[in-house]
Amino acid sequence: MKKLNRRQFVQTTTAAGVAAVAATRPLFGESATGPAPQGRSEPGRGPTMMTAKSVKPCVVASSNGNRSKDADGITCVAKAFKMMTGGADVLDALVAGVAIVELDPGQTGVGWSGLPNAEGVVQLDASCMHGPKKRAGAVAAIEGVRTPARVAQWVADETDHHLLVGKGAQDFARAMGMKIEEGLINETARKQWLEWKRRTDPLHYLDPKTRAQAWYDAGLQMVREGLIDGEHFWGTINCDGVNAKGEICGVTTTSGLAWKIPGRAGDSPILGAGLYVDGDVGAAGSTGRGESNLYNLSSFLIVEEMRRGAHPKDAAMTALKRVAKNTIEKRLLNAKGQPNFGLNFYCLNAKGEYAGVAMYQGTYAVCTENGPQTLQTDALYEGKPTD
């Protein structure tokens, strides 16, 4: 037998030890004593690939997303969810969903039937964002169209721009093949506008110092009298979705604040305010007082909070608290020193977790594998804005 020197002995025994361990140690997480845990291979069968769990698809929206229905009796969130889980592009599904609300002549806060501006002209705003494509589009103060969200999607798909406004937006819609209807206004909205005009300008002129407050008070008085749905005084629908692949998109569309100054654009068409989507993180959008949301770029803030790991509910609460802190004008505060307006956020993350959060208690819509539902929002304050 050949005699081994020290170096040869060490090399030989080390190799034998490695071989012995390899014979008993499981590979890539295999169990050496029995069946492997779920998702792993069994002994002797070789390693299996580990795959991430699929995202639970969901669509979340403002409450009108589960109210207006199409000819088949399907609501916005239900239609969007059905299309999305059926293989349609997420944004295509959401735009088709909100079109149900935009085309509903029975409501006055979104689309062609929305309440007009101070001159009796319907001007619409909308925005959309496509997470996977990193594309966005929006229109503001567009006239003569029924579905502004579709025009916003065209801006994202067909141009190098993010925002088109006024006549330019209308001309673009016409160029894309959309029918432009001059003087488009719902008869109910027209009558409500005439009533507002009667209350605010009976002699054609008002004291400049009180005109702004009179304008606001007249609108809220019509809400209190039941002539206008309080939700529709501000209007808007936001709708966000995530599919099983984790692809996230969002859309917001509105007729804007009732009786607004012509040309006014609120938060809805502004990326980061009325809507923000990051395809790797989540989406957020809003309804309610646009100026307060716009000042704080709340949707962007919510997505950034989710990026840091916050649950959608907590992220939205952070935004609401910031809005409340920055609301200091007396005319915007109630007797408790709290904001006297509503502001609501709807958000979801890349895991499929979602939330509806509001300044004051309200409702929001969601559709999952369990079907469409209308749920209670989590509220920052108890009571009502006017308390």
The secondary-structure element order is HEHHEEHEHHHHEEEEHHHEEEEE
Helix content: 25-40%
Strand content: 15-25%
By secondary-structure content and strand pairing, the structural class works out as alpha+beta
Report mean pLDDT, rounded to a whole number: 85
What is the alpha-carbon Rg in Å?
Answer: 27 Å
Main sheet makeup = 8 strands, mixed
Total individual domains: 1
Highest-level CATH class = Alpha Beta
Low-confidence stretches: 9-52, 204-208
Distance between the termini: 100 Å
Q: How do the strands of the widest beta sheet line up side by side?
A: 4-3-2-6-5-1-11-12
Query: Number of DSSP strands?
Result: 13
User: Could you say what the CATH architecture is?
Assistant: 4-Layer Sandwich
Tell me the CATH superfamily: (Glycosyl)asparaginase
- Tell me the CATH topology: Glutamine Phosphoribosylpyrophosphate, subunit 1, domain 1
List keywords for this structure.
globular; 13 strands; alpha+beta; five-stranded mixed beta sheet; about 35% helix; about 375 residues; Glutamine Phosphoribosylpyrophosphate, subunit 1, domain 1; 11 helices; eight-stranded mixed beta sheet
